[in-house]
Amino acid sequence: MKNYLKLVNFEFNRLAKLFAVLLGITFLAQIGGVIVLSKKYLNVANERIYEDMIPKAQFIAEFGQMNFLQVARSAFFMGPIALCIAGVAFYIFLIWYRDWFGKNTFIYRLLMLPTTRLNIFYAKLTNILLLTFGFVAFQIIFLPIETTVFKWMMPSEFRNDMNVIEILQSMPELSIIFPNSFLEFILYYGAGLMVVSVLFTAILLERSFKWKGIFAGIIYSLVAVAVLISPVLLHEFVLNGFFYPIELFLLEIVMGLIIIAGSIWMSAFLLKKKITV
Amino acid sequence: MKKYWKSTAIIAVIVISIGTFYINAALSAPEYPMFIIEKQSGQDQALGSLAVEGFYHETASMNYVNTNVTITSEGSEYNSRTFIDQIIGQPAPMIEDLQNEHRYFMRGKGLSTDSYFESDQMLAYAEATYSYGSMGPEDFTFDIGILDKQTNDTNAFTVEIPESLEIDYIYVEDVQVVDNVLHVITYNVLSNNNNNNVANYIYTIDLTKETVSSYEAVFTESEQQEDLDINTSLVRTNPKQANEQLLYLKTENKEIEDQESIIRIENLSKELISYNLKTKEKTIIDLGERLKENDISYYVDSTVYLTKINEQNLVVTPYQLEDQQFGNPYTIELSGETGEGHSPMIEVHEGKLYVTTRRMTDKINANVTMVDVKTGETLYKGEVITKEDKEDLDEFELYIHDISVR
């Protein structure tokens, strides 16, 4: 346990820089978006009210008040989120390959540590989770800061206030990242954990058997997909809708857990017996 | 410990931030008013297990989602849209009861109450299924399931629907078992030689040979005249009710375009026709002028209930099919809105007729009345009210779409 925690901390220190940079970009771009877009709205308002002599009330009736969703749906807001998602996706591979291709083949030292090699796998998996949840957590912290800046920028008669929960619930495009209930949070990110563990196993297969391993990795991923959808296929085509929806749902959770367990077992085997430096 | 500050800090941020978010999300869940059916007159327990179902909607809110609410004399229950509820789905109360009682038999069965027939001895199920071919739906078959309630034996099989090539669409409107013969009553859309027909079919299924022993198009209407619409529809009954006689209402409507090119529909004729499943005989039921003025509201125990709205009253006229006689009409006083599109909901259950008005808002209440179906004597009168003070509530609308007595 202690060795595992040491490894987690060690890995996290290595990715802290990337994490901090992406968070910085996110914060600056989103605050920038708030400032730019509210300025834009106010400029139009000024033009219409002071140059075209339209009464304020009429302008608001025609143009509508500005709310935070207009910022949140813009590229200033969604762009950095997409960048962070891409960052996590990229790091799933980098977290392994940097140990082989970085300076002085670091994996050699990792594998030589006096602890079970599976701890390396767990530590890397934990770090992907930390990175992802870190982004989610900081986005939840950034949002109230951004809405406060929005309030400073916009006179109250021009804006329609929303709180963080209202903003996130009005954006179905973000509901996978910020699920509406804690149960969905567990399920979605549990599914994410399953995908990462399958990808890690595929990476280890490649590291163990090189070119042949890529092929094995693809096969392994396809098998995982087949296992996952097997209850649905059985239900639809063989058993004529035998299961009640709740049973099918529980079966899917069981299948997901089987895939995670299978990946861990497979990775343990590869790390112990097959991995090459 | 200093070595660990970064990972410790990030874990703390994650737990606090995401934790607070979900605690707040749970606390800020929308609050809906509590509805209850309150007695105005009548016996205390008279209403029994009547449940009124409606769509609740806050008129002023940006959210156009209707929330389904079930109201009884004990209170109201909203269908929460939680993740688990969405997975389970919301089958009709009758289907839910059947799933609880006959969990194995109900596996893989459709959710339409029209597909079921229930008596003390048996539960029968028939549903039309098809596969998607290159030319649209094809290979129409009936999925049949019979459960013997005494022995718990099930008999399930599929039979091909005859003349399946001509069928474009088929819907099972009713299932009846008369003297151990299963009848599947359907509404078919047919096409042959570019002729589109709609037809009401009855398929008789032999349960021992597992075949369709006979079938008949009871009514066929071809879609020829453009502005004339002839439609024959089955008068729906309680799915738990055994009926030897089916009732069809044939209406002829004409589209009339007036000067401002507004199309309105004029009713030319209405005809009530009964079909006997045993003798396969069709009989026109002569109701005279009454049919034209009234709606056919309910058909139970070989009595048809004709209703019409007369100012604030609902006038109910029973008609006994067997002795071909009208019973004494009675009136039920309604309050609230009874205008167009808001005809009240009517349900007959064990000799009692239940009526509710359709719409309730923060200004008008919906009312619930129960009368003796034979005499028209009022047994219970009540009102749907909110437990909260109406002045504290946002503007809302409750549209009642179903009433059921379990």
UniProtKB/TrEMBL annotation, chain A:
Sequence intervals crossing the membrane: 15-37, 75-97, 118-145, 186-205, 214-234, 246-271
Keyword line: Membrane, Transmembrane, Transmembrane helix
Domain of life where this protein originates: Bacteria
Protein's recorded name: Uncharacterized protein
Naturally occurring in which organism (per UniProt): Paraliobacillus quinghaiensis
TrEMBL record, chain B:
Source organism superkingdom: Bacteria
Stated name of the protein: Uncharacterized protein
Origin species: Paraliobacillus quinghaiensis
